[in-house]
Write a structure and sequence with these properties.
Blueprint: E1 6-12, E2 21-27, E3 34-43, H1 46-53, E4 68-76, E5 88-91, E6 131-133, E7 138-139, E8 151-155, E9 159-161, H2 168-173, H3 177-188, E10 196-200, H4 204-216, E11 220-224, H5 230-235, E12 241-243, H6 253-261, E13 267-270, H7 275-283, E14 291-294, H8 308-312, E15 316-319, H9 327-339, E16 349-354, H10 358-366, E17 372-376
Helix pairs in contact: 3-4
Protein name: Alcohol dehydrogenase-like 7 isoform X1
GO cellular component, one term: cytosol
Domain Alcohol dehydrogenase-like N-terminal: 32-163
Length: 379
């Protein structure tokens, strides 16, 4: 049976920093290797904010943001066999095609068959859009997902099939930020039992790092943040100690953490996106074996300043995307840990709203009032 376009509501961003507009859009049928997905709910991530604010990028707007979501497959295109209509899926910005050398190499999660290109605003295989507005003009895709629409089209390499028994709002938070933090303690850093961990920035990703470190058996988890309220929040996710840079006088953060850990933390995670903070995180790690993992994105591209002699002292520094997690292989493992009550995810969801209130989710995140706000499409 021939598939037809679907008319539905979408929250369209037409200019940097302006409120999203609820509009009718037309969502084309899926082409080969694609699926059309009916979104159940989304959450708002700081990456959405970053692109929402982005100026001076030709051809970015109009765009449908949103990349943390869960939905149900409505239809599939030619050649799609791993999902079918009715399946519950997580759309994920990072692909796992299963065929390229990187997908077949255990230590890499950076699919080279369909590489992640953050500024690519179309479908990854043919470079065209599946969205048009009421005037017939193209509306751009975002991070291979575009979940702020009742329906979206996603390449099958970006879809993770999940058990229908999993609460949708819980699975949803695992499609990017929370998986990045928890995954970084597992896949990137391989945090060991009894270790010390320092987390720089207690936003959603930083709190997820703390939760992952707790699950991995770290005994000292130090949260570093300018907001003193974050310590009480962090305790829910395993934070044992807190450092507020505004309250340590003339001492550097690294000096304080070395004192707290007896020489430096075994693992440091930079979750803010500050090159200067990366340096402090690196200097806070233990000589001889300390690992520093960069999870934050410095939008200005500021170089990192590190004395090479410190590298020769046995410290390492590494960057990672989505915490080093392979989406199709590893997200189901995290879901199993949740279902077995081994990791805490409910606490990340601080607010729930309907789709018509989507701009409220932006306000809550900007004001620092939410960790994750569930945006239900049917409310």
């Amino acid at each position: 049976m021939e598939m037809k376009p679907i008319r539905c509501k979408a929250a369209v961003c037409r200019a940097a920093g302006e409120p999203l507009q609820l509009e009718e859009v037309v969502v084309a049928p899926p082409k080969a290797h694609e699926a059309r997905v009916k979104i159940i709910c989304s959450t708002l991530c700081h990456s959405d904010l970053t692109f929402w604010r982005m100026q001076g990028v030709p051809g970015l707007f109009p765009i449908i943001l949103g990349h943390e979501a869960i939905g149900v497959v409505e239809s599939v295109g030619e050649g799609v066999t791993e999902v079918a209509a009715g399946d519950v899926v997580l759309p994920v910005c990072l692909a796992q095609c299963g065929d390229c050398p990187d997908c077949n190499f255990q230590r890499s999660n950076m699919c080279s068959g369909l590489p992640l290109r953050p500024l690519q605003t179309a479908m990854p295989r043919d470079g065209t859009t599946r969205f048009t507005d009421a005037a017939g003009e193209a509306v751009h895709h975002f991070l291979n997902v575009s979940s702020f629409s009742e329906y979206t089209v996603v390449d099958v390499a970006h879809l993770v099939k999940v058990d229908q028994a999993v609460p949708p709002q819980i699975a949803c938070v695992l499609s990017c930020g929370i998986t990045t933090g928890i995954g970084a303690t597992w896949r990137a850093a391989e945090v060991h039992k009894g270790s010390s961990v320092a987390v720089f920035g207690l936003g959603a990703v930083g709190l997820a790092v703390a939760e992952g470190a707790r699950f991995r058996g770290a005994t000292k988890i130090i949260g570093v943040d300018l907001n003193p309220l974050k310590f009480e929040i962090g305790k829910k996710f395993g934070v044992t100690d807190f450092v507020n840079p505004n309250e340590i006088g003339d001492r550097s953060i690294s000096e304080v953490i070395k004192e707290m850990t007896g020489g430096g933390a075994d693992y440091c995670f930079e979750c803010v996106g500050s090159s200067a903070l990366v340096t402090q995180a690196f200097l806070s790690s233990r000589r001889g074996c300390g690992k520093t993992v960069i999870l934050g994105l410095d939008g200005k591209g500021t170089p990192i300043t590190i004395d090479p002699n410190e590298l020769l002292a046995g410290r390492t520094i590494l960057g990672t995307c989505i915490g080093g997690v392979k989406p199709k292989s590893d997200i189901p493992v995290l879901i199993d840990h949740y279902m077995n009550k081994e990791i805490h995810l409910d606490e990340f969801i601080t607010h729930e709203i309907g789709f018509s209130e989507i701009n409220k989710a932006f306000d809550l995140l900007i004001q620092g009032k939410s960790i994750r706000c569930t945006i239900w499409m049917d409310k």
